[in-house]
Write a structure and sequence with these properties.
Length: 550
């Protein structure tokens, strides 16, 4: 429930706070006082697009803040899913800047307009001229019918079954495309496999071959360097081993005087061992090196073959081998797809039967709901100023079930006797649409989980006894929802549980909107004004009678 709405610096509104309550809340006032601007402010609060031009002259930004009480678990779940704090009340704030971007907060945390819109649709249902036009949309009509027939779960089951069937069809089409592509490429795929298998490369072979080829190409030079190492270690002329011998003799002398120096012997012995091993390795390396032109040519030929494979089938030999495996898998697909496609055909047939079954059940529910909804709405039309009105729901069968069932839903209406039934979208005026929406709300109130309903222009083109009946109808909806109505009719205003008056005055050369909650005599005076003359005794008496009759 919307507990309060504060609006600052929005068009003619300097700073206004609406304190609302349960039941029927009515906003009245002279034309142009700013009543509809308050509804526009609420729409902005709930995620509507912002226009910088709405900022009040002289102000840098417009600010709208709403407090919602008793929001319910469904709304709290959406708030939590958006990563926002859940509190006892829901506080939403929206700023529209004249110079910068629009900003929004929920319970003090920044959020996006998209999140506002998602949460807002569960908080408030606005039925101004623009919003009521949604009634002309086929999706809205289908949703309303399913709500009336308790068929929303059936509709969700149909959509799920259709999505499952379409997923299988997509999988089938993809597999067929892959099979057809593999069939077209079969000769090439076999060539790839044969070429790679004939070469039989190892994933690390190329590096090993390149290392061996480099050694063969520089065998003489490498052998000279290896012999130089051996000579440096074991040669007759000032070899490293001779230097170690001198070091050992010196260490022996040290040990005789200072036994602590014996700790160095491990290091010296290690040096001897390391030099011996190095000399052995260098000698073996030099002994194994030899010129082998035939082996070098063989290596170069093999490397050329591997380079050709990489150029044709991958950047590395590992990629070449992966290409070969992929080619084999594609060839296997030609054979395995026959069985896989048969399995998919059976699954699609089964999914189609299930979709047909669920769509038929949904269609039966819709058929019964269409008749009940048509009768119920038609009963309300005379009391809402559509004396000869008749409402029907037409179900047009589709060629095959789709995501929304096996039929389209079309709301039709006949507003004058003797005329033919026509789709709602081609018949009703703005005021008639508002009253048709009200009739639908009367019928669907028990299915509607949105706590707050807002009606603007619902009284367009009516008066007298019809206005009285519209007031009764709104009060009936307000028994199950919080209702906010903007009206020019005293018959509707008199039904209010809470009556707010909107007035416009000139402050400092700028038009300014004010709001006041009316009680007692003030309310009588406002109703008398709406009847024609606030100072007329007869008008005041009639206003009192309207209040007494509520």
């Amino acid at each position: 429930m919307l507990a309060s709405l504060r609006v600052r610096d929005l068009a003619t509104i300097a700073d206004v706070t609406l304190e609302l309550g349960p039941g029927l809340n009515v906003l009245t006032g002279e034309t142009g006082a700013g009543k509809s601007m308050l509804v526009d402010a609420l729409a902005l609060l709930l995620g509507d697009r912002a226009d910088r031009a709405v900022v009040r002259p002289g102000a840098s930004r417009a600010v709208i803040e709403g407090v919602f009480d008793q929001v319910g678990t469904g709304v709290n779940a959406r708030v939590e899913a958006a990563g926002l704090d859940v509190q006892d009340s829901l506080v939403i704030r929206r700023e529209v800047s004249r110079a910068g971007p629009s900003r929004a907060w929920i319970n003090g945390s920044p959020t996006t307009v998209g999140v506002l819109a998602s949460i807002g649709e569960s908080l408030c249902d606005l039925h101004g001229q623009h919003q009521t036009l949604q009634l002309l949309d086929g999706v809205t009509q289908r949703t309303l019918l399913d709500a009336h027939g308790n068929a929303s779960a059936d509709a969700a089951a149909v959509r799920s079954a259709w999505q499952e069937r379409e997923h299988l069809r997509t999988e089938q089409a993809t597999l067929r495309d892959r099979r057809d592509e593999a069939t077209r490429r079969a000769d090439w795929l076999r060539h790839v496999i044969e070429e790679v298998d004939a070469a039989a490369p190892g994933p690390d072979e190329e590096g090993e071959l390149e290392q061996e080829a480099t050694r063969l190409a520089h065998a003489t030079t490498l052998a000279e360097h290896a012999h130089a190492i051996v000579d440096a270690l074991d040669g007759d002329d000032a070899s490293t081993r001779t230097a170690l011998g001198r070091a050992e003799r010196a260490l022996n002398a040290l040990e005789r005087v200072d036994p602590a120096a014996s700790e160095w012997r491990t290091l010296l012995d290690s040096a001897y061992a390391q030099l011996d091993e190095l000399a052995r390795l260098a000698a073996d390396y030099a002994r194994n090196l030899r010129d082998d032109p035939a082996r070098l040519a063989q290596l170069e030929h093999r490397l050329d073959l591997l380079a050709t494979l990489r150029r044709k089938h991958g950047d590395t030999l590992a990629d070449v081998l992966a290409t070969r495996e992929n080619a084999a898998a594609e060839l296997d697909l030609i054979d395995s797809s026959v069985l896989d496609l048969k399995v998919l055909d059976r699954r699609i047939t089964s999914a189609t039967h299930e979709l047909d079954r669920l769509a038929a059940l949904l269609g039966e529910r819709r058929g019964g709901a269409a008749s009940r909804l048509a009768r119920a709405v038609t009963r309300h039309l005379p009391s809402l100023g559509l004396a000869s009105g008749e409402f029907t729901v037409r179900l047009d069968p589709l060629d095959e079930p789709g995501p929304d069932g096996a039929e389209s839903v079309v709301f039709e209406v006949r507003l004058n006797r003797g005329m033919e039934m026509r789709p709602l979208s081609r018949t009703a005026s703005g005021g008639e649409l508002s009253r048709l929406m009200l009739a639908l709300k009367l019928v669907l109130a028990r299915h509607d989980h949105v706590p707050t309903l807002v009606f603007d222009e619902v009284d367009q083109g009516i008066g007298g006894e019809v206005g009285m009946q519209v007031g009764v109808a709104l009060a009936g909806v307000a028994a199950q929802h919080q209702v906010l109505v903007i009206t020019h009719l005293p018959q509707i205003a008199a039904r209010a549980d809470r009556h707010l008056q909107i007035a416009k005055a000139d402050r400092g050369g700028v038009a300014t909107t004010d709001v006041a909650v009316l009680h007692g005599e003030d309310r009588v005076i406002e109703l008398a004004r709406m009847l024609g003359d606030a100072d007329d005794a007869a008008a005041r008496k009639l206003a009192g009678s309207l209040l007494a009759a509520r």
